[in-house]
């Protein structure tokens, strides 16, 4: 992190981490959920009870939708599921730092599509769309990284917590099923394939 130009304080357990978070002045907190002494949830709660709106990025091996919803409800700003590439961690940190202090995102939008993270509800043109847990996670990832082309390997690691096997078409099948639900009956089409690279959700600017 220091080599990337950041000034960093490191806490190796939750007790020191909470002390630093509550007494220091930081532009961003990166929290591991599983910390000795006090876990990441406890630090998050303490920071938000102190009415600090500092952006918080969670690092976690827990990929269940319920865990991510819990974190967002408690006030986390972003999630990165292990294992992850350090370059992606840097990109997420820079994005949150640019955004500055903010409230956690509860709704994601593009065109007439809306995803309610807390209620786990998706609508388009006011019509409710029922998604499976994996489809919801896939759509959430696409919307959080709106305009970015996401590789199959990144999608596999973030949504399925697995290494991408080029011999499997699980990602392509999942995207195809998601498209059928959120794009097929609507205009404009939002989920696009970038040949040889991956998938992106975007809308052409008029």
From TrEMBL:
The modification 4-aspartylphosphate is found at residue 32. The lineage of its organism: Bacteria, Pseudomonadati, Pseudomonadota, Gammaproteobacteria, Oceanospirillales. Signal peptide: none annotated. It comes from the Bacteria. Keywords: DNA-binding, Phosphoprotein, Transcription, Transcription regulation, Two-component regulatory system. GO terms for molecular function: phosphorelay response regulator activity; transcription cis-regulatory region binding. Residues 105-203 form the OmpR/PhoB-type domain. The keyword Amino-acid biosynthesis does not apply. The gene is cusR. It comes from Nitrincola nitratireducens. This is Transcriptional regulatory protein CusR. InterPro entries: CheY-like_superfamily, CusR-like, OmpR/PhoB-type_DNA-bd, Sig_transdc_resp-reg_receiver, WalR-like, WH-like_DNA-bd_sf.
């Amino acid at each position: 992190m220091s080599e990337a130009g950041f000034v960093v304080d490191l806490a190796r357990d939750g007790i020191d981490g909470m002390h630093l978070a509550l007494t220091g002045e930081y532009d961003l907190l990166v929290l591991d959920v599983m910390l000795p002494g006090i876990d990441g949830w406890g630090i998050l709660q303490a920071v938000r009870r102190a009415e600090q709106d500092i952006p918080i990025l969670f690092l976690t091996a827990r990929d269940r939708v319920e865990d991510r919803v819990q974190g967002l409800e408690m006030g986390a700003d972003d999630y990165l599921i292990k294992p992850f590439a350090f370059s992606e961690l840097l990109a997420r940190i820079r994005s949150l730092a640019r955004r500055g202090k903010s409230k956690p995102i509860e709704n994601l939008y593009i065109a007439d599509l809306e995803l309610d993270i807390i209620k786990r509800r998706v609508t388009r043109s006011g019509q409710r769309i029922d998604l499976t847990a994996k489809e919801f996670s896939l759509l959430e990832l696409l919307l959080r990284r709106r305009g970015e082309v996401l590789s199959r390997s990144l999608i596999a690691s973030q949504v399925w917590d697995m290494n991408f096997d080029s011999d499997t078409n699980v990602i392509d099948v999942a995207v195809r099923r998601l498209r059928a639900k959120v794009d097929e009956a609507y205009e404009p089409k939002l989920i696009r394939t970038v040949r040889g690279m991956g998938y992106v959700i975007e809308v052409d600017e008029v």
